Amino acid sequence: MSSQDIPEENLPHEQAAAHGAAGGGTAVTPHGAGSADPFADPGLPAHKPRIQDIDEAAAKRSERTVAFLFTLSMLATVGFIACYVIFPIDKIVYIFPFGHVSALNFSLGLTLGIALFCIGAGAVHWARTLMSDAEVADDRHPIEASPEVKAQVMADWRAGNEESGFGRRKLIRNTMFGAMALVPLSGVVLLRDLGPLPEKKLRSTLWAKGKQLINMNTNEPLRPEDITVGSLVFASPEGLDPHAHDWQIQMGKAALMLVRIKPEDIKDKRELDWSHDGIVAFSKVCTHVGCPISLYEQQTHHVLCPCHQSTFDLSDGARVIFGPAGHPLPQLKIGVNAEGNLEALGDFEEPVGAAFWERG
C-alpha cells in the first residue's frame, strides 16, 4: 500500500494534530515544516519491581530453585559416567515410545541432556529473578573507548557483580561451580570410545605352534600332497570360526598363502629351513597398505599385489623387487604333524601387513 492509499486521518502528523486539538495542546505539524519529529523516541516504560526485589523470602526461593537445578546437573553428570561404566555397548532395551534402543546410547543422551539443560535453566532463572532487570539506554559511541568510558564500564561491571549477588549468594555460586566443573568429565570418559589399547595385538596373530593349516576353500586340513608345484593355496589357522564377530580382524592378520617351489630353486637359506619339502608359507597381506595378494606367476615365483603393483619374490625370502612396499612378506615356519597334516611351528616373527610404523 502506498502513502497515497492511507487515509489522511491515519497519517502520523494528522493523528498528532487531532490529539493536540482534543487535548488543548500544541498540534504537531508535518515533518520538515519546523516541527518536532513525529517519530520521536518514546522512551522506556516505567520499571516495575519483581516480587524477588521486594520480598527476600521470594528471593530465597529463587535462590534454592537455581541451586537445585545446578545440583541436579551435577547428579546427572555423575549418572552419565555411571551409565558409561554400567551398560555394555551391545545391550538393547525396550523403551516406550522409542522401541528397542541401545541402553548405553539412551542413558548417555538422557543424562547428558539433563546435565546441560539444568545448567542453562539455572542460569536463565538466576538472571530473570535475582539479577537486576533495570533497562538502561546507552547512546552509541566511537569504537575506541575514552578513559571515562573505560572507567564507566568497570564501574558498571562492579555494579552488575554486586547486583547479581554472586558474592553474597554462596549457595548459588558454589553449586554453579560444581555443575560446571563436573560436566567436562563427561567428555573425558568419552575417550574410551577411541577403542581399547592395542597392547601387543598388532604384533601377533592366531598362528601358534601345533595349529593346523586349513584350506580356505574346503575347510579341511592341508596335506603336503594337496599343494603341487606352481599352485597357490590360501590357508587359515585351525579353530578360526568364520561366524565369530572378530573373524575379519583375525583373518586380516592371519591370512596365509602357500606355494610349492623346488627346493633347489629357493635362494634364501632361512626360507628353505622354514619350509617343508619346498612348501613355503607367507603372509597374504601386502606390506604396503595391507591389500590381499592373490596374483602368482609360477615361472618366476613372483606374487603381485593388485592394488599398487608391489611385487615380491617368493623364492628369495619374499623380498620386494618392485613397487612401493617397504618390507618383505613375513614367513610362517611350517612342518607336518603326526596325522600328516601341515601345521605351524610358531607365529610370524614380525608384524604382518602395512609397514606398522616401520615395525618399531
TrEMBL record:
GO molecular function: 2 iron, 2 sulfur cluster binding; metal ion binding; monooxygenase activity; oxidoreductase activity, acting on paired donors, with incorporation or reduction of molecular oxygen
KW rRNA-binding (keyword) present: no
Residue ranges of the TM segments: 66-87, 107-127
PROSITE patterns (alphabetical): RIESKE
Keywords: 2Fe-2S, Cell membrane, Disulfide bond, Electron transport, Iron, Iron-sulfur, Membrane, Metal-binding, Oxidoreductase, Respiratory chain, Transmembrane, Transmembrane helix, Transport
Requisite cofactors: [2Fe-2S] cluster
Region (Disordered) location: 1-42
GO annotations of cellular component type: plasma membrane
Domain named Rieske: residues: 253-343
Pfam families in alphabetical order: QcrA_N, Rieske
Domain of life: Bacteria
Record keyword Cell membrane present: yes
Record's bilayer topology term: Multi-pass membrane protein
Compartment(s) where it occurs, according to its Swiss-Prot or TrEMBL record: Cell membrane
Family: Belongs to the Rieske iron-sulfur protein family.
Quaternary structure (record): The cytochrome bc1 complex is composed of a cytochrome b (QcrB), the Rieske iron-sulfur protein (QcrA) and a diheme cytochrome c (QcrC) subunit.
UniProt cross-references to PANTHER family, sorted A to Z: CYTOCHROME B-C1 COMPLEX SUBUNIT RIESKE, MITOCHONDRIAL
Role: Iron-sulfur subunit of the cytochrome bc1 complex, an essential component of the respiratory electron transport chain required for ATP synthesis. The bc1 complex catalyzes the oxidation of menaquinol and the reduction of cytochrome c in the respiratory chain. The bc1 complex operates through a Q-cycle mechanism that couples electron transfer to generation of the proton gradient that drives ATP synthesis.
Protein name: Cytochrome bc1 complex Rieske iron-sulfur subunit
